[in-house]
Amino acid sequence: MRLDLALTTTVIFSVTGLSVVQFSSNARVESVKLVHEQQSRSIVESNVNLALWRVNTLPDSMANTASEYVTTVLDTNTDQLTVVVNHHDRLRVVEVDLFEDMHFNHSLATNDTLEMGPYSIGEEADHGVRGEFRFLPQVDTDYFTSNAVQVHPHSDWIYYQSDFDEEGIHIFTGDNVWLYSVTLHNSTLVFESNYVYFYKDNDIRAPQPAEGQAPLPALVFTNENIIFRLAKEWWNQDTIHGAIYCAGKIILKHGTFTGPIVAHKIAVKKNLNFIDDDHDAFYAWPRGFGNYTDYDWPQHITNWAEYTQI
After folding, report:
1. 192 and 218: one domain?
2. Distance (Å, rounded) from C-alpha 107 to C-alpha 125?
3. Quick check: 297 and 133 in contact, CB under 8 A?
4. Letter string b/e over residues 68-97, b meaning 16 or more CB atoms within 10 A of that residue's CB
């Protein structure tokens, strides 16, 4: 009887021991698989980030690379980035759709600081604000000059409604100029001055572009040293329909704006309510800034599709 009990006990312990060993082995295999999966995913994500950095800082062709485990290809026709990782007998393919972003897609855009503070501007989600683009678009002064209806050369001058003969492109070449309650529709105002002031209620509206036509901006400030204030006092209620471009800084405090507003620096000093939802046509590459294709636009990810083959 004691022998039988001993044999039974031995068999039981042997089976239990095998189960523990088998469980431990399976757990180790699953653990190794998990580690390999995490490693593979890290390789994919790091190479997507690296390729995106190359696209946004180097010539697009530099995104095309091949190494022992990873191949990266950018299709510039479809703006699709493909990353293939062959790691630990697992083939992972990631297709990333990219979107070219530009300043005039945004209600507010800068290539330097964008000071929002505690304030909001009530923009549509599609026109969200963005700071720190790597550059500002360059003004094609020849375009505006050759299409101007009037050139205003005076310095230390206040311009009234009577100083404007017709709607269209107006260029101000003098320094220290003021606009006093001026209403100009279907117009673009280009200022070369370091000092420009809007007093009382000014209403400047760019032409409404026809379908498929590039818009004209409403206001253009070409001087890099300017600090332009829109409605800095409570009695000012400026209305600007169309893009505003400033090579210097813009301070927003009061007024009605459609956007986009593009500047080196922007500071928002009060809550505003942009009316961009009714003026989507202004959110496009405008005339007077050269060709869109002359710039190397930053790209960001809009869609990520992943396929795994073991």
Report:
1. yes
2. 10
3. no
4. eebebebeeeebebbbbbbbeeeebbbbbe
DSSP state of 278: G
Q: Are residues 108 and 239 in the same domain?
A: yes
Residue 50 sits in the same domain as residue 112: no
Same domain, 134 and 255: yes
Here the contacts of 79-87 (C-beta below 8 Å, separation 24 or greater) are: 79/299, 81/48, 81/51, 81/52, 81/55, 83/44, 83/47, 83/48, 83/51, 85/40, 85/43, 85/44, 85/47, 87/36, 87/39, 87/40, 87/43
For the entire predicted model, the pTM comes to: 0.78
Q: Are 282 and 127 contacting, i.e. CB atoms less than 8 angstroms apart?
A: no
Instruction: Judge if 122 and 222 occupy the same domain.
Output: yes
Domain that holds residue 64: 2-101+297-309
31 with 88, same domain: the answer is: yes
Note the pLDDT tens digit of each residue in 125-148. 999 999 989 899 999 999 999 999
The number of beta carbons lying within 10 Å of the beta carbon of residue 99 is 13
Q: Which residue has the tokens 């399976």?
A: 26
Q: pLDDT tens, 40-61?
A: 778 778 878 887 788 777 777 7
DSSP secondary structure, 130-193, as one string: B---S--PPP-HHHHHHTEEEEE--SSEEE-GGG--SSSEEEE-SSSEEEES-EESS-EEEE--
